[in-house]
Amino acid sequence: MKKHEENWKTLNSTYLFKKPWLTVREDSVELPNGSVIPSYYILEYPDWINVIAVTTENKFVFIRQYRPGIGGIHYELCAGVCEKEDTSPLVSAKRELLEETGYGGGKWKKYMEISANPGTHTNTTHCYLATGVEKRSEQNLDETECLTVHLLDREQVLKLLEGNKIKQSLMAAPLWKYFYENK
């Protein structure tokens, strides 16, 4: 292995901020070439999930909600945090889809795993494809959630992607993969 392909060595770690939804760590690190970065910041998050959910009528289950980080209302896949009490990311994905949209059932498969930013984020996003989902219940939203459910056809979703209207990269990536594989 070449020197530039080796792991970095952590010399020191200090937590600057520690909350359930965000933990910031400052590391002092030594690179394989001997260079030292005295302050390298790592964001620790729990793992996340998202779901491409397709109904028995071949409609895609989307949500729409306000996103304060970019100041707008956007279409998104159902997504959420892998809670500690969930026994697996799949359990988290099924729970989130049912809570946020009222849809469930169907055939589920792990679709891909991606990272928001492997340079600074510790977590993984587990993407699932759920086909043949059906309306099972009403939404069961948390106090902090305010979103609407939308059933979109293939052409509507492609138009959103092509028009750069799906802003969340962790959702656009699995959707582009889906449309590439399902031409």
From TrEMBL:
<comment type="similarity">
    <text>Belongs to the Nudix hydrolase family. NudK subfamily.</text>
</comment>
<dbReference type="InterPro" id="IPR000086">
    <property type="entry name" value="NUDIX_hydrolase_dom"/>
</dbReference>
<feature type="domain" description="Nudix hydrolase">
    <location>
        <begin position="44"/>
        <end position="174"/>
    </location>
</feature>
<dbReference type="InterPro" id="IPR015797">
    <property type="entry name" value="NUDIX_hydrolase-like_dom_sf"/>
</dbReference>
<dbReference type="GO" id="GO:0019693">
    <property type="term" value="P:ribose phosphate metabolic process"/>
</dbReference>
<protein>
    <recommendedName>
        <fullName>GDP-mannose pyrophosphatase</fullName>
    </recommendedName>
</protein>
<dbReference type="Pfam" id="PF00293">
    <property type="entry name" value="NUDIX"/>
</dbReference>
<keyword id="KW-0378">Hydrolase</keyword>
<dbReference type="GO" id="GO:0016787">
    <property type="term" value="F:hydrolase activity"/>
</dbReference>
<dbReference type="GO" id="GO:0006753">
    <property type="term" value="P:nucleoside phosphate metabolic process"/>
</dbReference>
